Amino acid sequence: MITKQLPNEEFLPFVISELQSVEGKTVTLPLRGRSMRPFLEDNRDKAILTITPDINTGDAVLAEISKGHFVLHRIVAIDGNHITLRGDGNLNDEHCTFSDIRAKAIGFYRKGRNKADMTEGYKWKIYSWIWTRVFPIRRYLLFALHPHVPARFKKK
Fold this sequence. Notes:
Layout: H1 8-21, E1 26-30, E2 46-50, E3 60-66, E4 69-79, E5 82-86, E6 94-97, E7 101-109, E8 117-118, H2 122-133, H3 138-145
């Protein structure tokens, strides 16, 4: 099997066009980046995406926040057409509009499992409820879970 990696600005428009080609179609997308830590990991987990008009606070969505710059982050606030996004592993927000949302995550394959954690399931809802409410102390939790100690200070 031949594997080819493309930059997001080339690959994701293709994924979006595939989703738009058939109503109800889903695409499973390998995740890149650290913004959804600690529960979704770079090069380990996969998102199941679909297009749906049903978008709400708490949903994880694929949004194009600027031309060619896509993020898969959680909606933390909706004010009219203005949407505030934040990755679970991020402390800062991004902003977009409803028209910038390209797809919604309806599930995730985590830790190499063959069974998806669906976003409508109790596991995801409980995790989401807890994690979104610990935002004020999130930076400390993230540091404890994934310390960023420079290599020169680590024991050999």
